[in-house]
Write a structure and sequence with these properties.
Blueprint: H1 10-14, H2 18-40, H3 48-69
Helix pairs in contact: 2-3
Length: 79
């Protein structure tokens, strides 16, 4: 079982558009910053969350890079 957020499974990330992935990446980076700050001040209760957020960020970067290389395709926007 992969470590990370349960709501950020690869299949769900693959269904997102590039803009949605960028927004999710910004959100994850902000959470990582907050977790690091809590860790530095001794207020962090869940150290496993740091690892999960880092893996979520890596997962998002991987999907974006695979789309750039043409390995994955972005979902088509139908209106």
């Amino acid at each position: 079982m992969a470590v990370g957020s349960k709501d950020l499974a690869t299949t769900e990330l693959d269904a997102m558009t590039d803009e949605a992935l960028a927004a999710e990446l910004d959100k994850a980076k902000q959470e990582l910053f907050n977790l690091r700050f809590q860790s530095a001040t001794g207020q962090l209760e869940s150290h496993g969350r740091l690892k999960a957020v880092r893996r979520d960020i890596a997962r998002i970067y991987t999907i974006l890079r695979e789309r750039e290389l043409g390995i994955r395709t972005a979902p088509s926007v139908s209106e």
